[in-house]
Amino acid sequence: MARMRVIVNPAAGAWKTAKKWPEIMGLLKSIGLDFEHDVTEAPGHGIELTKSAAKKGYELIVAVGGDGTINELVNGLYDVDALGNVTLGIINTGTGADYIRTLGIPRRYKEACQSLASPKGKVVVDLGVVECMSKGRKEKRLFVNFAGLGFDAEVVRATTEQFKTMGALPSYLMGLLSTLFSYQNRDVSIVVDGEFGERRICTVLMNHGKYGGGGMLPAPDADPGDGLFDVVIIDDIAKPDLIWSLPRIYKGTHLTHPKVTLMRAREVEIKPAVKMAVQADGELFGEAPASFSVLPAALTILI
Question: Is the CATH code 3.40.50.10330 the one for domain 4-120?
Answer without folding.
Answer: yes
